[in-house]
Design a protein that fits this description.
The complex is a heterodimer of chains A (298) and B (278).
Chain A: H1 2-6, H2 12-38, E1 41-42, E2 52-53, H3 57-63, H4 66-97, H5 104-111, H6 113-116, H7 119-129, H8 136-143, H9 160-185, H10 189-197, H11 202-231, H12 234-239, H13 251-260, H14 265-297
Helix pairs in contact in A: 4-9, 4-11, 4-13, 7-9, 9-11, 11-14, 13-14
Chain B: H1 2-36, H2 40-43, H3 58-65, H4 69-100, H5 106-115, H6 122-134, H7 141-165, H8 170-177, H9 182-193, H10 195-211, H11 214-219, H12 227-234, H13 242-277
Helix pairs in contact in B: 1-13, 3-13, 4-7, 4-10, 5-7, 7-10, 7-13, 8-9, 10-13
Classes of the chains: A mainly alpha (298), B mainly alpha (278).
């Protein structure tokens, strides 16, 4: 720090950042601006003669597009559902793993496996588990007497999205476990000892010590995960392709399908920009939190 | 007597629930493995066979003879390795800079690295497709290596900044007294100490590149085909060969899981360091 003051403009720290800044400019920033620009154009790649500037035309078109609104609604359901499922299971798992038992480290390692599983493999494994003809889930439910016969989970409009949400819960809950477990281990044990002396029962200790102490880490984790979950589209694409009909369309998936299958780059960009606007608020909240940490950290 | 009830209680409130969660976490893999060694004719004969009577490795051998899975493994290995090397080179220097120097614009730059990680990936798909087609690098290793190395920078930089912050600055000063300049102090003194953290970050970049699907689907075609794309392509138009597909899934997930076990401690401490203090 002293050194930096002595030399007025020391270029050395900037030169260390230069490679990273250069590639992010070309691979991320220029494309971002590009997309924003494209969103004002009618740009379907196989109709080169019809490329023209339509300004807010695509944005208006989206607001009148029924599929856009279905995708929008599904995005909200998707985020709220997946995050709460992951949070609840992740929390319970963390509470259990916070206790001492002889096979704890083995259990913790095994529980982390879903988290490193590629989305493609997650999607394919669960598609197979849900299979309407020879799926394990159907077999178990029929054996337990919960179902009369096999049910096509992913081919039914009302169960497709929840079924995929459940699969994403599987992939993501270990992240919550890891973060909450770290938070639990950072709570000073003296707090519990004092509470015990004062005659508090486990329930009271959970609600008056554990939960409040965990609040900061819970909020950070939820924000971080929300952004990630909102953007994840590969798992939906592979499990149902957005169907049946539009039952499992979300905004990122709709944008992807428009770009990838329809080659409608202008409209796909517009949907992506709408999604970004939706996420900007969450990102801002996250950044503010992280900055507070970073300040304390230095 | 009292001891017995204690054991039973521990089993009901602790061991059993943990076992159920472990089964839930590993179940899909166990099931995929069982499916992958089940002969095809037993698979669709109606009902579900839990223990295949005539286990077979046919699906695994077919994976390599029929659909050229070795080629896909090679493509994934090349892309992930080079993405790891480039991504690491760029983020080690960047995070050292953030950790060791105070300079104008430090904070905005740091936020910038945080924020770019959060833009919807669909925002980048179309322009990257257009740009890489124009430069004729679409469907080459270069396209994916560049993309994955770049996407890895934000997370790697944040993580390694926290590893570097944990190394006392006095070491840099001492190295300079011993005759190092600023660059050699970083390379000879600080980086070796941070090596476990750097290795963990490297493996993390490798894993994410190995797993990535969305960009690969847009930026590759006939000549480069990474594993996620190959697996997705196996989902045919008509009937899915689940035996083959689950074998492919098992083969491609194993390296990732093994690598992950090596780095889980480092990775978790790097990830949770900031959040716990928050």
């Amino acid at each position: 720090m002293i050194r930096a003051l002595r030399r007025k403009t020391d270029l050395y720290p900037y030169s260390l950042l230069l490679p990273a800044l250069t590639v992010t400019t070309f691979i991320i920033f220029i494309p971002l601006v590009y997309t924003f620009g494209l969103s004002f154009f009618n740009y379907v790649i196989w109709k080169p003669h019809e490329i023209k500037f339509v300004f807010l035309g695509n944005y208006k078109k989206a607001l009148e597009d029924e599929v856009f609104w279905i995708s929008f609604r599904n995005t909200l359901i998707w985020i709220a559902g997946v995050i709460s499922l992951q949070l609840v299971l992740g929390f319970i798992t963390a509470l259990l793993l916070n206790r001492q038992f002889f096979w704890r480290s083995l259990a913790r390692s095994l529980i982390l496996i879903p988290w490193v599983t590629p989305s493609v493999i997650t999607a394919l494994m669960w598609r197979w588990l849900y299979d309407g003809n020879s799926g394990l889930i159907n077999d178990i439910l029929v054996r337990l007497g919960i179902l009369d016969r096999y049910f096509p989970w992913l081919a039914n409009g009302s169960t497709a999205l929840p079924a995929i949400m459940f699969a994403l819960m599987w992939q993501g809950f270990p992240f919550f476990t890891v973060m909450i477990l770290a938070g639990l281990q950072a709570i000073p044990t003296e707090l519990y000892e004092v509470a015990k002396v004062d005659g508090a029962n486990p329930m009271q200790m959970f609600f008056h010590i554990t939960l409040p102490m965990l609040m900061p880490i819970l909020l950070t984790t939820i924000l971080l995960r929300t952004i990630w979950v909102a953007n994840s589209l590969d798992i939906i694409f592979i499990m149902t392709g957005g169907g049946p009909g539009y039952a499992s369309h979300t905004l990122p998936l709709y944008s992807y399908i428009r770009a990838y299958k329809g080659l409608d780059f202008g409209y796909a960009s517009t949907i992506a920009v709408y999604l970004t606007l939706l996420l900007v608020m969450i990102v801002t909240m996250y950044v503010i939190r992280i900055l507070k940490t970073e300040e304390r950290f230095r | 007597m009292k001891k017995h009830t204690g054991v039973i209680r521990a089993i009901i409130t602790l061991h059993l629930p943990v076992l159920l969660i472990v089964l839930f976490a590993t179940g899909p893999y166990i099931w995929s493995f069982i499916s992958s060694i089940t002969p095809e004719k037993d698979m669709y004969k109606g009902g579900v066979s839990y223990f295949p009577e005539n286990p077979t490795t046919r699906n695994y051998s077919r994976l390599f003879s029929k659909i050229n899975f070795a080629e896909n493994l090679k493509d994934s290995l090349i892309v992930a390795t080079f993405a790891m090397l480039f991504g690491l080179a760029m983020s080690v220097t960047a995070s050292y800079s953030f950790s060791r120097f105070q300079f104008k614009g430090r904070k905005p730059l740091l936020i910038q690295f945080l924020v770019i990680n959060m833009f919807p990936i669909v925002l980048l798909l179309v322009p990257l497709f257009i740009i890489m087609s124009r430069f004729h690098i679409r469907d080459t290793y270069i396209a994916l290596v560049f993309a994955y190395a770049t996407f890895s920078i934000p997370f790697s930089t944040w993580m390694m900044t926290s590893f570097f912050n944990a190394i006392p600055r006095e070491l840099d000063e001492q190295a300079k007294i011993d005759g190092c300049n600023r660059f050699t102090a970083m390379v000879r003194v600080v980086i070796p100490i941070a090596l476990p953290g750097i290795a963990a970050t490297a493996i993390y970049i490798f894993i994410t590149a190995w797993n990535e699907f969305v960009f690969a689907s847009v930026l590759t075609g006939k000549s480069v085909r990474t594993i996620p794309i190959a697996l997705q392509n196996m989902v045919g138009q008509y009937q899915i060969e689940w035996g083959l597909l689950t074998a492919g899934g098992v083969v491609s997930a194993i390296p990732v899981i093994i690598l992950f076990f090596f780095i889980q401690k480092q990775l978790i401490s790097g990830m949770t360091a900031g959040a716990v203090k928050g």
